[in-house]
Design brief:
about 350 residues, alpha/beta, six-stranded mixed beta sheet
Length: about 350
Amino acid sequence: MKNRQQTFDKSLEAVHIFREALQGWLFPSLEAELGALDDKHRAFVDLCAALHEHFPAAQYEWCGNGKPPESRWSYFKALLAKAFWNFPSTTALIGELAARPVLRRLCGFEDPGDVPSEGNFSKVFGAFADDGTAQYVFARFIAHTFEGAIIHHLLIDSVAVHAREKAADKAPSATKQESRLAVHPSRSADENFRDLPAQCDVGVKRNSKGFKESWRGYKLHVAASDGDIPVAMWLTSASIHDSQVAIPLMQKAAEVCPSLYGLMDAAYDAAPIRDYSRSIGSVPIIPVNPRHSADGAPELEPDHAERFKNRSGIERVNSHLEDGHGGRSIYVRGHAKVSLHLAFGILVIAVEQVFKLLE
């Protein structure tokens, strides 16, 4: 375990050296050409530089047929900018690119006339959605960053995603949900994710005051590490119960690195989830759901109760996505496009939080 943590520390040290190199040669070069960069522009350059090596550029290279396509990396950077600055729509993004020379040129568009049209953005966004491009870059960045690491506390929770599309029929029965939990440990994370409902429908949950509230759309499930760094994500139908996604998220996180504790709220109180957590060497810290105990829910043991306080990190991640990186401004439709839109926000948060560890 000690060797793993040392490897992780070296990985962070490499990121720190990389950022110092940016400040030493790239920023002066950019400022000589574009003028002074403010802190926000510098952070955006950091973001793009950290992700460039993980972008599947070869996949989008010109094959020699027809007109050479515009740089897909430039489109990707523009969509990152949309999530980074929390621009509410593609129309707003195009307007900002046209009006802000520094941002436009950082994204790779020299003149206002070079900014793609909304139709072209839509076409490329659709291709990125089909390919899961942002999700792919996110997975590679996390795998690279956490190589050799140990996650002390793996935090899992979900957040409601409001969509502007028609809701599908009702969700599967509780029997289907129970059978799904039973088979999840025997299958891979990707197999389990593919089995989960993905259509837009209606979700219901209790708010912090105990009142039921409903929404039409989806539900984003996120696993994060200490430091509020997202390490895995998946979008499902709004109606899917949180417990149905716990094991796949733990599996996906375990592909990156092991975790010592799994922190989840009472919605995840199910024997298969606890058993799977223990099977991968992680101690589950999950409050008992009062509905599962006739005598009321027992309190967590003192040491577990203290560790459970760290669960607030996943709530910060979800709030950060909603308030700062596109979680409340979803105008695309369909699982693939909504998932891509949210993945850009999660990707921005992941890089930001990793960089914060270096400050």
